[in-house]
TrEMBL record:
Protein name (database record): 15-cis-phytoene synthase
Molecular function GO labels: 15-cis-phytoene synthase activity; squalene synthase [NAD(P)H] activity
Domain of life: Eukaryota
Membrane topology category: Peripheral membrane protein
E.C. no: 2.5.1.32
Species of the source: Zizania palustris
Keywords from the named record: Carotenoid biosynthesis, Isoprene biosynthesis, Transferase, Transit peptide
Family stated for the protein in its record: Belongs to the phytoene/squalene synthase family.
Catalyzed chemical reaction(s): 2 (2E,6E,10E)-geranylgeranyl diphosphate = 15-cis-phytoene + 2 diphosphate
GO cellular component, one term: chloroplast membrane
Lineage, broadest ranks: Eukaryota, Viridiplantae, Streptophyta, Embryophyta, Tracheophyta
Amino acid sequence: MLSTASRSAGSPVCARRRPGARFFDVPRRAATLLARVDGRRGGLAPSCSVRVGSDPIGCLEVEPPWSGVAPALPLRSVVAPADGSLSVAVPSSEQRVHDVVLKQAALAAAALAAAAPRTVRPVQLAEPERVAGGLKAAFDRCGEVCKEYAKTFYLATQLMTPERRRAIWAIYVWCRRTDELVDGPNAAHISALALDRWESRLEDIFAGRPYDMLDAALSDTVAAFPVDIQPFRDMIEGMRLDLTKSRYGSFDELYLYCYYVAGTVGLMTVPVMGVSPDSKAKTETVYRGALALGLANQLTNILRDVGEDARRGRIYLPLDELEMAGLSEEDIFHGRVTDRWRSFMRGQITRARAFFRQAEEGATELNQESRWPVRN
């Protein structure tokens, strides 16, 4: 077996589990981050065995609460120097993400302004699969998958209206299937071509041509709610990064990756959860809050899993900030928990807390039945 340090930068090893349903778990995830990083290991968590198993949701068909007040800084401005303080910078990646936010917010605002309900196109299952029971069976299956893999999240969705609940299940299942492509038991056999095929299949879903029953549930969802395809495409792009990239030179690069694999979830789901009719906030503000929640959760995962990722030859920390802190890749690979490391991690926590705070502010503007599942 290769040692951690000898793995190549582009080694297609299993990546860390992404948030998925954990997107909705703000206080618990923040507490986990603080407990892990402030503990004895300083974020260098023990290794865990790589999962093996079957493919129960059919994703491989494409190929045989913290204290204090958060800093009043815009989302793109949060930077974590080694001393744990905050400074301001404007990464170019944030503007790219901001354009996606604006587009999705505009779609949602237009749908809200329209007096008549949206026209829903009929969804027809493509060959080779026809589903007995139609869409009801499709959504029921999505609910079963959600209940099996994310029970707490599933219970939280019971507070939503039936239409919203089913739609959130469908989005969750698509995200999980996508995640399984590069983080599942058969991840070593997934290629860039497989992801290209998965993206082509996504386009068919949005065009009303689903391949199977789980696709059909999502196809019906995106026809019924003002959901844009771009966040879904971007999540697939994040999977492509995991096939080829294992280092991030700056937070600008890491920000884009975190958006791809986690921030996208917020942009997918807010059109379904809806904005409160009493909200005085701009639609864009609500979407930026949802984006911040995904980013915060992914940063939490990164800080929690530093040791596990290192054993897979991966570093999901900004290398330039590591260098400024007087740290190196070898410090991470050898699990050296020093005062410099603890100071560096305090800065990373400060950044994550700022994103959590912005997420909390956005959650207060959601529809009442959607608000509680997100905030608790």
